[in-house]
Amino acid sequence: MNAALRERDSFPPTVRWGKGGTRRTATLVVAGAAWGLALFSLPCHAGILEWLSPELAHMERERADLEQQLPSLPAAPAVHPSERIGWHSVYLGSPDTEQWVDLRLGRPQVVDAVVLIAPPPGGATTKAGYGFPKRFRVEAIVAEDAQDGTDDDGPVVLADYTRQDFPNPGNLPVWIPVGGRMIRELRITATRLYTEGGRSFVALGEVMVMQGKRNLGPELEAVGPDRVKARSSQGTRPDWGRINLVDGHTVLGPPLGRRESPALGFRSKPASESLGLTRPWVMVDLGEVVPVDEVRLFPAHPPAFAHSPGYGFPVRYHLELRLDQTELPEYLAPPQSGSYTAPPGDNVVTLVGEGRRARFVRLNVDEPHVSNGSAVFALAELQVWSGGQNVALGRPVTSSDSTEVEGWEKGALVDGYASVADIVDWPDWLEGLSKRRELEQQLAALAVLRGSIVQRWQRAGLLILGGLAAAAVLAMVGWNLRQRQLRRSEMEALRERISQDLHDEIGSSLGSIALISQDALAMAPDDDLRRELQEIRDTAQQTLDSMRDIVRLAQSGVYGQGDLTAHLREIADRMLRGIPHEWTSDPTVDRAFNALPMNQRRDLVLMFKETLHNIMRHSRATNVQIHLNRENSMVEVSVRDNGCGFASTAQKAGSSANGSGMGLSNLQRRAAKHGGRTIIDSTPGQGTHIRLRLPLS
User: Fold this and answer.
1) Which helix (H) or strand (E) holds 160?
2) Which residues of 587-600 are buried (b: 16+ CB within 10 A; e: fewer)?
3) Are 284 and 414 in contact (CB under 8 A)?
4) Nearest residue to 395 via CA among 298, 294, 286, 297
5) Of the given ranges (26-30, 297-301, 467-471, 688-692), which has the lowest mean pLDDT?
6) Which of 104, 115, 164 lies closest to 135 in space, CA to CA?
7) Per CATH, the architecture of 575-695 is what?
């Protein structure tokens, strides 16, 4: 037996359950998790993702190309607030109710582009792009060859965004090219309205009609609100009104470039308000008489007055056009936008000259701006446009007085700069901002699409991680099962060796003792010696029988899977030798008994032998009935004898009627260990009925 144990300990460690196996299992799990995490983190590495996804690689190239274009485009300007927000339709219950607005130019005009701008956010508007229609089209009444507008060719669609929702432009313009058509009327029709708070409507901040470097909107404003018609309009002046669509007040402010301004502009000398308001003036000498198309005034906005847009812009003023210094001037009235006015903030104020000829352009202040108790007149730039050119650039400037310190100087009025940066032309600036809007919207769409692709790869990474984790768990379970199987095989081999050693060595020794005792018994000279020898022989034979039962349990084919009922029957035939006994069972019951696991089989055999042993020693029975039965999930061995029996008090005490003890408590303990029962029914003089019940597991 010791040799067998030594042989067991010499088994290779790879088939034994121990620390090495645990380390290998942990290594498998960690390796699987590491691979899964690596795959899960792939979406975070752009290069790997582009290699895995051609679609993403194409998207990344497109994104890089779009981002390369952005630096060449005008920077998005800061939000410029205004008291005159724009035009607002009535509120409607359905977003699919059409709303339109018409711009009537009065006579055919060459138009290069139409620009749509949403109202500025803040105050009456809740967010950038407030009220901009989701779907719309822009149409024009075109007069290709007409001189007086009578030979109309009918409406022409300039832009159609009615098939799908138009991306909200926010604070940037929408540039719609027209191509130099001769147009007398424009219509913007919203076919799907903006919706907020359960109400549908449309709102626009400005519609600019571009002709070369000019915006024709101020011409419509100069004529009056009849030039702008709408299906519906609501809101209080000056915030909302149809004429606000062409007043030049936009969220964009003036068209500025990237070059920093060398000066702040022109400013008169501040005068104390308590001494009475002065009426300063400033004049530009164009050097020659030219037809004046329009005059543009750029309000000043010095950094020291960042909180005050339109610093020093006069409350009331008028513009004089003079051929010379002595001639009576022609006056250009400031735009009144119908019946109301509002300060322009930083927005450009355009006065229409209608081709009037002039050399001198003089701005007279009728009521100056008052800041911190001082009346002041300031202007960043004054432009005079004639024939598509700013003819005031760099020309001489005279004034009633001027401040020539702290960045203010007369020459800055015509230097081509506003207070913070250089002034650029409307078309390039507006078209560039519209292009920026389109690029930024494309980049945003690419970001959303890329995010969805990344999410797909993340889900794939999670699935791979889960699969690898499951595979690692399965591998660990399989490895554990394999180790258990190997351990079980090892134990089986050990049991076989122990059983063989018991049978070959101890069994043969016990058999020799029994034979020697038998031979000595035949030659014993007296009765006492024969009794002792007979007891030695019987003890050796009983021990040999018990050992054979144990070996039988240990060597029954695959361990513990032999024919249990046949074994029990052999035990009964051997132990009840000399006592008539009956055995009853059926094949179904035999299969149930043979399905018992090894530990239950062992205890059942020991309980059965203990029962038969008690019958042989104490019952004085002349007949024994053994019945094997199955009831639901329990198997039962019933042993009934016709012996002397015993009293119930003896049953409770676990002893026989003669007080020698039957070990009944051992029967109950072994059965209870497996969730079973030992039922003992005995009456003195009427025999004993013992039922051994065990559950099928």
Assistant:
1) strand 155-161
2) eebbebbbebeeeb
3) yes
4) 286
5) 26-30
6) 164
7) 2-Layer Sandwich (3.30)
> Quick one: which H or E segment has residue 690?
strand 688-695
Handedness of CA 262, 264, 268, 273 (dihedral sign): negative
Give the strand pairing for 389-390 and 271-272. unpaired
Sign of CA dihedral 632, 636, 640, 644: negative
Nearest alpha-carbon partner for 117 in 289, 285, 255:
255
DSSP 585-620: --HHHHHHHHTS-HHHHHHHHHHHHHHHHHIIIII-
Residue 171: phi and psi, rounded to 5, are -95, 5
Q: Which range among 35-49, 384-398, 603-617 shows the weakest confidence by mean pLDDT?
A: 35-49
Chain center to CA of 178: 44
Q: Is 0.85 topped by the overall pTM?
A: no
DSSP character at residue 200: E
At residue 640, φ and ψ (nearest 5 deg) are -120, 130
Strand 271-272: give its sheet, edge to edge.
271-272, 374-376, 369-371
Domain boundaries defined on the chain: 87-246, 270-420, 575-695
Q: Which residues pair with 688 in a beta bridge?
A: 641, 682
83 vs 125, 204, 297, 343, 420, CA distance in Å?
Answer: 12, 14, 18, 7, 22
502 DSSP 8-state letter: I
The percent of residues in the chain predicted with pLDDT above 70, rounded, is 82
At 337 the three-state DSSP class reads coil
Quote the tokens at residue 1: 């037996």
270-420 with 575-695: one CATH topology?
A: no
Structure tokens at 622: 């002349």
The pairing of beta strand 281-298 with beta strand 316-322:
unpaired
What's the sign of the alpha-carbon dihedral 85, 89, 93, 98?
negative
Amino acid in position 240: W
**In whole angstroms, what is the distance from residue 495 CA to residue 512 CA?**
24
CATH superfamily of 87-246: Galactose-binding domain-like (2.60.120.260)
Q: How far apart (Å, rounded) are the C-alpha atoms in residues 565 and 677?
A: 19
Answer whether CATH 2.60.120 is correct for domain 270-420. Answer: yes
DSSP state of 588: H
- The phi, psi pair for 126, rounded to 5°, reads -95, -25
pLDDT (0 to 100) of residue 223: 79
